[in-house]
Amino acid sequence: MRLALKTAVIVFVAAILQGSWFNALSLGHGSAGLLLVVVVSLALLRGSVLGAGAGFAAGLLFDISTYGQLGLTSLLLTLAGFWTGRYGETTGRDRAHAPFLSVAVITVLYELGALTARFLIGEAAPFGKLVLGALPGELVLNLILTAPVYVLCRRAVGKQGDELGAPEVRVLA
């Protein structure tokens, strides 16, 4: 129950900050994606189920607060949270490069997914503007946000398995 409450508070604060301040923080044509970095961090730390749930809630809150296309951000952040959580569950999440690699890959996939979804629903989807203008700046800003956000999320929710209190078992051969 405490984990759900902590996650809800983190997601709510991130959605408010993304909608009010981080959308204005830009480099080139790309803006910082605090919400994406928070969802990726939570998913890496706690797994695919929490990542997907946090992604859905974050996307829904963001779409409601910005009067955006309801459900589009939820869909993309749910997929980002789930697949990042699967990466964290199947690979060494304690590796130092895991958060940075995850944020970089998910940022690119998130933008390509948003472009594809906009194209499919009939909105303007300029590929050149995304690839040459927005994506490089957004990637740099998201990578800058990765370390502090990951540390704060780890401090707030811990790693998966921390609540068990079981010591790690070493195999002696």
Please summarize what this structure is.
By secondary structure, the chain is mainly alpha-helical. It has helices spanning 2-22, 34-46, 48-66, 72-90, 98-120, 127-157; strands at 26-27, 30-31. Helix 2 crosses helix 5 (98-120) and helix 5 packs across helix 6.
Strands, helices and their partners?
Blueprint: H1 2-22, E1 26-27, E2 30-31, H2 34-46, H3 48-66, H4 72-90, H5 98-120, H6 127-157
Antiparallel strand pairs: 1-2
What does it look like?
The protein has 173 residues and is mostly helical. The chain has a single domain, classed as Arp2/3 complex 21 kDa subunit ARPC3 (Orthogonal Bundle), CATH 1.10.1760. The protein is built from six helices and two strands, in the order H-E-E-H-H-H-H-H. The protein has helices at residues 2-22, 34-46, 48-66, 72-90, 98-120, 127-157, and strands at residues 26-27, 30-31. Strands 1-2 form a two-stranded antiparallel sheet. The longest helix is centred in the C-terminal third of the chain and has 31 residues, at 127-157. The model is unreliable at 164-169 (pLDDT under 50).
